[in-house]
Amino acid sequence: MNLLSEIQYIKGVGPSRAKLLRSLGINTVMDLLHFFPRRYLDLTPLNFEQGRDDSVGAFPCLVADYGYEVLTRSKTRIVKIPVTDGRRKGSAVFFNQPYMKDAFRPGDKLVLIGKIRKNYGEYEILNPEWQKFEETDYVDYTRICPVYPLTKGLTQKIMRKIIKSVLQETLEVDEVLPKSVLKEYRLMPKASALRNIHFPESWEELKKAQERFAFEELLLFQLAMMITRRHLMGEVRKNTYKDFDLKPFLKNLPFYLTEGQKRVVKEIISDLKSDRIMNRLIQGDVGSGKTVVASIALYLAVKNGYQGAFMVPTEILSIQHGATLKKFLNPHGIKVEILKGDMPKAVKEQILGDLEKGRIDVVVGTHALIQDNVKFSRLGMVVTDEQHRFGVRQREALVKKGYYPDVLVMSATPIPRTLALTIYSDLDISVIDTMPEGRQKVETYVVDESMRTRVYKFMESEIRKGNQAYVVCPAVEESDIGLSSVEEIGRELQDAFPHLRIGILHGKMKTEEKDRIMKDFCDKKIDVLVATTVVEVGVDVPSATLMVVENAERFGLAQLHQLRGRVGRSNLKSYCVLISGSKEMGVKARLNFMMRTHNGFEIAQKDLELRGPGEFLGVKQHGMPEFKFAGLVKDLKLLETTKALAGEIIKKDLLSTTEYRGIKRDIEEKFKIV
Ligand code: ADP
Ligand code: MG
């Protein structure tokens, strides 16, 4: 067996498991080794009293009596196995697995791995994983146990076994990082890092392994950014601008620009006047009015004879931004079209044709814009909204369609300056630091379950006033992990308020359906929109005045701030209610911070302190080169270290040396550049 061997030849993997593994993107032994755990269970042996509510623990125990079956009122078949940890009594409880009744006999020694709870004074460990062990081998199970992201048909047990068996072979793992780098930064070599990422010997070793991968990941990312920058930035301007007259545009606006907006517009104009092409990031809090600024850039581009493209992460946003741009630009004879992935063929062909012939001035769309069949006649201005969702590569793909176009990137989440400088090392940064006048703070409350009825009543009263509400849930459908789901809450609300028009929206729905629901919500045909975080980015519904977030503890502060930014978008008094049943001190403090603070940059800074830069690196988001590890890093130092090293590598042109061959190859593969 070697790294390139196909998985069906691994011990314990037959054709059907191989198929399941392939569906997870695992084709070779190498892929398998790079299929990293999502998290780890701490299986330090505990006695029942040491078990913490709702967290998985490992409980060595003795079977005290024969198992027996109970039938609950809801007809669930439950098997209970009486066990003891030596001091306390308890039971292992299995749901709908009647055969477990005879799986153990009194006197068996077990390790039960599962969640423990106290039920009428007796400990219960629910649906545990279990291992029997003999008197002699005390507890021979992995103390730090990996949990993999799996698919139906594969279990953690199987996956662990397969990976363990592969790790037992001697495999020649290529070290990517040069020896000198490993030494200077005291990094764990790749071979042992791979071992420790799956089956860590200790928490310290795990941390070192993660750090090593984070280092590698960030270094590659920084290098890719710098190489792209070399491609894009400092390029001599080819598109010349003569007409900077904004009076007609501003006269048509229903408001005056804020000071912050004016300053950023000035910065853009000075870029366009300079002899280098523009690569600028606009940062601004939610609602600070970034879209108008983008419209101005597009207006200038068209007035000077160029086309513009506006790329957004979701179709919903493409429709909204399309409408906004039409409103701002149509009166000046500028033709704006929206390009969608799934339009009727004829319509799409028409748009594509018009775009290529230069009959369309500005096009708005999702990734659909970077497809090969999209051609421009003279693309001169590329705007991407909510940038952290697009990879360097996607932005570049769009840029390549133009003739050295200027680039404006709008960030969704305000991020602390140091971090911005590091992640967006290829961009100049502008900040809109003022909010439009008349905006009120969104009044924010953190509540627990006991307030739910009151929250619903309040929601109803808001709707009676003619306003609208969002309810955001972390999950789409019901599952056993105890999270509120869109479907469940949607049903619950509809039952409780038959007269309200409830709509649901989540990422698993078809695009047309999503668009229709969102449009109905915008048109006030829906009162309450129950959704996942798909509503997080950018949508603008001015009469929405209430945002309820379920299981608020599941979201990062920056993300909560984004969600909160969906309301308070007009002069109507708006509210944000964060529902959380969590009793953890840290969680409470974190959520309470949202009540006090309304400044996106401060919130981002706090999030950075609490959760590390992962939140901003798009760990949970799509599009960005996938950071698997960088998010685990708790400080900015690693970002800075890797940035400095990347700078040195580029400056000394080390990528062309043999020592750096591995890195070069990986950058090429991962970022499709160099
Ligand atoms: P974001 O920065 O979050 O993308 P938007 O561009 O969506 O914000 O703007 C939020 C809302 O504020 C929009 O309805 C927009 O028309 C409005 N707006 C933007 N600039 C101003 C301004 N200077 N004065 C008043 N309203 C403004
Ligand atoms: Mg926006």
TrEMBL record:
One record GO biological process: DNA repair
Residues of the Helicase ATP-binding domain: 271-432
Residue span, Helicase C-terminal domain: 451-609
InterPro entries recorded: ATP-dep_DNA_helicase_RecG (IPR004609), DEAD/DEAH_box_helicase_dom (IPR011545), Helicase_ATP-bd (IPR014001), Helicase_C-like (IPR001650), NA-bd_OB-fold (IPR012340), P-loop_NTPase (IPR027417), RecG/Mfd (IPR047112), RecG_dom3_C (IPR045562)
SUPFAM superfamilies: Nucleic acid-binding proteins, P-loop containing nucleoside triphosphate hydrolases
Entry annotated with the keyword Iron: no
NCBIfam families, alphabetized: PRK10917.1-3, PRK10917.2-2, recG
Protein family membership: Belongs to the helicase family. RecG subfamily.
Protein name as catalogued: ATP-dependent DNA helicase RecG
